[in-house]
Amino acid sequence: xxxxxxIRFLEKHTEDYGIFIDxxxxxxxxxxxxxxxxxxxxxxxxxxxxxxxxVMTTDRDEFIYHEMITQIPFYTALKPESALVIGGxxxxxxxxxxxxxxxxxxxxxxxDGDVIDVCKEFxxxxxxxxDDPRLDVRVDDGIKFVKECSEKxxxxxxxxSDPFGPAEGLFREEFYQNCKKCLNTGGVLxxxxxxxxxxxxxxxxxKNLSKVFKNAGYYFANIxxxxxxxxxxxxxxxxHYFDDFDKKLYNEKNMDYKYYSxxxxxxxxxxPPFFRKKLEEYGK
Amino acid sequence: xxxxxxIRFLEKHTEDYGIFIDxxxxxxxxxxxxxxxxxxxxxxxxxxxxxxxxVMTTDRDEFIYHEMITQIPFYTALKPESALVIGGxxxxxxxxxxxxxxxxxxxxxxxDGDVIDVCKEFxxxxxxxxDDPRLDVRVDDGIKFVKECSEKxxxxxxxxSDPFGPAEGLFREEFYQNCKKCLNTGGVLxxxxxxxxxxxxxxxxxKNLSKVFKNAGYYFANIxxxxxxxxxxxxxxxxHYFDDFDKKLYNEKNMDYKYYSxxxxxxxxxxPPFFRKKLEEYGK
Lengths: 284, 284
Description:
Chain A is α/β, with parallel strands linked by helices. The first copy, chain A, is built from nine helices and 13 strands.
């Protein structure tokens, strides 16, 4: 009797290199209006969400991405009381924001309602804040939303998929201009910004943000299911990612983070010289 | 006519997860006295060295590992004039040490002479310092060498493979005791210490080092071909990895590093709370 077969998920990060995860059970697979949505279970990572066959989140390491895209702007914004999240249909980013009693209002704009429904079903620990009365969920196009939006927020977070398909416009200068319009004075924007070493997404995002905001920054988190190293951009006209870290608020709140800390807040902005050069010289 | 086939290298980092690299050409494959030594070429990473089917180094990202295992102790040791390297047969670590005119003597103890020969042939930019008159190469067992060694060095670097097969003894307390015996006052030890998040190697190494040295530290570098995040241990009885960074020497030398910098030296020791907890509570 032979061993039974194996289903292996592979995600390429370049033409000939990437990561693999063996699939225990394929739990969900459906083409939504926008993309292929799949959920599988695995021994190492627990449940894994794929959008168009790219890893979006996993049970085991989601805390890294969600803490880092959220707590960095929370402790840097002048008065973090309201937030707009574009994308983020899994609910992890709004969960992190709504941990804070200071947060009075959070608007989530996710283009694909199926993502929200799938995450409520399969990732209840991530999609755990959808009933919070402070949360306003809009199933809508984020690009259109920020263009037409007349409200202002203290934090704007672009928690998108990669700049292909539905998320393509979320890395453009025009979009960042509209996001800036949605920010209060003292406000801060963060965006997921791609596989830093292997693609140009980081450079494109950083360059376009730098045109729109006075202070642009780039920071890292170690996310193994994204290939090991993930990048985020930071932008603000008034707040500096490092000098304006609100140490008093951080100490008072004394939260129990798993990845984020004061030390990580400062360290994550340290860029190796080869990468800093790539970022700064891109497009010149 | 069908497309031709493909040879894909996969390295598991857990039972069901890891990285893959497609092989362009298999350049070398031979069982040495100690291990299976292979070299292949790939589009993304250039030439790749495997020992017992684990990635040891690649043309494209070797600078990250070699700068980080070497420059951290160089700028922290009291008087960095001599170094002992255990393992490191590819030559990258001694290349980094011998970049410094301050280095008067470097001893390399590699158990597997075939690794040195293969790297001289296939990785000439890594194995470029074997003719330096300051270098003393011994093809010998590092464990035996440090046990019997009566000389002292300012820096000891354990540039080994993972703690299986020939490198197993290089993570034990007894070995670290012998390494300490080889250190001058003001000396510093660094060791490669495994895939930090996925294995217990980091914890074992850190715990054993902490028993032997007054100051033990743990630091990270982002090495995608090792799965994304790699760990190193730092140990010294007199020098602190952070407070004793020699800023004056660093500024005077003004070297052109690609990954290492003063900023990285400080940032790489920032550990996420979940990992610090794992390190500190291991074995308790």
